Amino acid sequence: MITRRSLIRTTAVGAAAATLSAPAILSAQSWFAEYPFKLGVASGDPASDGFVLWTRLAPDPFGQHAGVPMSALPVDWEVAEDDRFRTIAAKGTELARPELGHSVHVEVAGLKPDRPYWYRFTVGSDRSLTGRARTLPVAGTPVGQLRFGVCGCQHYESGFYTAYRDIAEDDLAFVFHYGDFMYEYAYDYNYGPDRLPVPKVREHRLREVVSLTDYRQHYAQYLLDLDLQAARSSQVFLSTFDDHEVQNNWVDDFAQDPSIPPEVFALRRQAAMQAWYENMPVRRSMIPRGELILANRRIAFGDLAAINLLDTRSFRTNQPCDDKWGVEPCEAVFDKNAQVLGAAQEKWLDDNLGRKDARWNCIAQQIMMMPLNRRTDDDQPELMYNLDSWAGYAAPRERLMARLAKVDNAVVLTGDEHQNYAGLLMSGEKPVGVECVVTSVSSGGDGQDQRPGSDRILAENPQLRFINDQRGYGVCSVTPESWRTDFMVLDQVSSRGGTLSRRASAEIAAGPANLSIV
Q1: What angle do helix axes 212-223 and 262-279 make, rounded to 10 degrees?
Q2: Which CATH architecture has domain 146-517?
Q3: Environment class of residue 219 by beta-carbon count within 10 Å: exposed (0-12), middle (13-18) or buried (19+)?
Q4: What is the pLDDT of residue 11?
Q5: In the chain, which residues fall in CATH 2.60.40.380?
Q6: Which of 113, 195, 295, 458 has the most CB atoms within 10 Å of its CB?
Q7: pTM over cut 0.90
């Protein structure tokens, strides 16, 4: 029986449902006083059937909790086969949780291999900008070519992110970011080329970051850069970390300052690792366990290339010789128990290098493998190593070189040095691979073609074939027959609008280790 009361109740429910579903009404509603997607969108860790989508709600990036209520908020996401979103390939809702800084990590699966997709997020009536990502070819299937980018080391105060604008406009399968996404300290002063003080290009808000709140706000300052947002929204990233995501030259739970107890530094490292996870497009398997993220992983691009991403910080023995620069190598450099990767990660890499399912075997990591003598002056010691590189760890380096001697077509990609280098990796007198060290996005400022003393470094290290001191990024072009790394450099980063050019290319023919610079 329909009574007046039940009629009113039914009508009210229907009206409420109609109101909630009406786009005109919904579009007038916003959950935030300001736009919540100020930090942009990103994608990462591609597979043949999907990738990770990322965003982080931050209507007030430097305010308390970035201006977001301390509750889990539903964020809708869509993936489409076209940039107008006419054909939706996948969609869903993910919670942005306060425990993770209201970041969102969506692991999309079930997509078609080796093709581009477009994605976006919506919360309430607010919609993010549109991002673009690409799936990989199916592992093991024949592939004729691969083109991808390499970048990292981007101190905010040292220069503008012009390289990222160029990366955004390039046609790349993915971008390997080798680390130093942000720097944990501010420069107290800045020198010009004449060693006189000059203004910084731009300023960090915080002098140094220590707490989780500090790290979150620091990432926000970096992510507000629109050139960086352009690259992250246009390319799919393989993200790793190096030292400055935590503190300069940290390893394991050892701080740069030896007076800080390891158990105290571990707390800072834990905050830093959580903030890194919150701001990177990586999978849930990399969520921190305390201060530890298991960041090593393997990406297969058909049958053409396998990319092994390493973590050279978390399991490493403390740097030998007190990590001093400009001293002769001490006995600890040759410690047979020293580790760079740790036993478990070293075995993982060893097993992967033993697989025969890819033409090229790439090791994507952070610190230089070539043990370069850095001597540039007669007054310096006869032999000078960078002890924060593999050169400070003779035993694990020799083990890896012996392993590479049994591997076909090994190429190592490295960052950290703020310069471009290319050279042969040697096991005794035998070349076993090629290392391409890619320069910084901004760290080091404008730079120059070569630093003073570079000619002497080239002369004293016969395995080294190329060195350059400009900012930029790398582009690797791979076929079954060859690997080429183009060193793309900018004439300046101290002002916007620097001009990009190819400085040189490292060319490697498939077969026994070889290298030509063109």
Answers
A1: 40
A2: 4-Layer Sandwich (3.60)
A3: buried
A4: 30
A5: 41-134
A6: 295
A7: yes
